[in-house]
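Notes from the 1:1 (GR / supervisor)

We went over the backlog. Supervisor wanted to see one worked example end to end before approving the batch request, so GR pasted a single chain during the call. The sequence is below; no edits were made to it. Supervisor asked that the structure be written out right there so they could see what the output format looks like.
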Amino acid sequence: SGLLIVQLAIGRQARMTNVLLLALAIMLLFNPQLLLNDVGFQLSFVATSALLFFHPVVEKWFAFIPNALGLRTVVSSSLVAICFTLPILIWNFGQVSLISPLANAVTLPFVPYLMAVALIALGVSILFLPLGQIVSLVGIALSYVVLRLVTVFGSLEFASVPIAYSRVIAIVVAVFLFTIIFYKRHSFFHATRHTS
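Structure output shown during the call:
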């Protein structure tokens, strides 16, 4: 998410690719096991990569949705993240969340503000720690709201459904996604160059 905010600030897709690869290299340098053993890392990296490379194209598919309050961006980015992380989720957890599109649509608008507050609190803490701690209380409050929302959505009875033969289904979904990327690569690459 932090990388996506940086992308919006610098507006350079090619540079963001380098930043993403640099971040990956540094993290794996300190802990090579992340790539294979840490599901959270896998989900974060795949979701961030998908948003960086494929969101510009997918967002155009939702041109009929008004972008007031960033609604179109929230819907399209949520869909991209969900689709590309789906094989990992099915493979590791054997289930699919039915509520995640709605949960993402509700919680994603909080993320930029949460990260902005965290960055401000960090900067202020360097200059004057007590003031930074006070600023961080806003971030804690936002985090609590997001956590409560996630908890409420996750507690719904129909929140997720188990998937039979989950690893086979995960492979099928992954192949399907790679096939779409292969046949739509011109559109994706054109969007990447256009945002560079």
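Supervisor's comment: The chain has a mean pLDDT of 78.
Batch request approved.
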